[in-house]
Amino acid sequence: MTVEVGDVPEAKRYEARVDGESKVAGVAEYIRTAELVAFVHTEVEAEYEGAGVGSALVRAALDEARAANLRVLATCPFFAGWISRHPEYRDLLYQTRSKVSD
C-alpha cells in the first residue's frame, strides 16, 4: 500500500490518498502563520485506520514544516503523541518566548 500526502492550502489541510485512489483516506487540518503551523485535527477514514495513513500525514506535514523553517504547535492529540514517539521531530516544537511575571 502506497500513501501519498499533499498539502491543500485552500482547505488548510493535508490530504492522504492510498494507491492512487481519488478518495481521501485521511486529513490533517492546520492553521498557519508566517512562523508557526498549528496542527489542530487529524482524521483517518475507518477502513484505513492502522494502515499507516495517519503516520504518513504527520511525517509529510512535519517534513514540510521543517523545509519551510516553521515551528510546530501540536494541539492535535495524534500529532502530539506521534512526535513524542519520534524524538527526531521534537526540535520543531514551538517554544514560547514570553515571560510571565507575578
Automatic annotation (TrEMBL):
PANTHER family: BSR4717 PROTEIN, PROTEIN NATD1. Residues 6-94 form the N-acetyltransferase domain. Pfam families: Acetyltransf_CG. The lineage of its organism: Bacteria, Bacillati, Actinomycetota, Actinomycetes, Kitasatosporales. This is N-acetyltransferase domain-containing protein. PROSITE patterns: GNAT_YJDJ. InterPro entries: Acyl_CoA_acyltransferase (IPR016181), Gcn5-rel_NAT (IPR045057), GNAT_YJDJ (IPR031165).
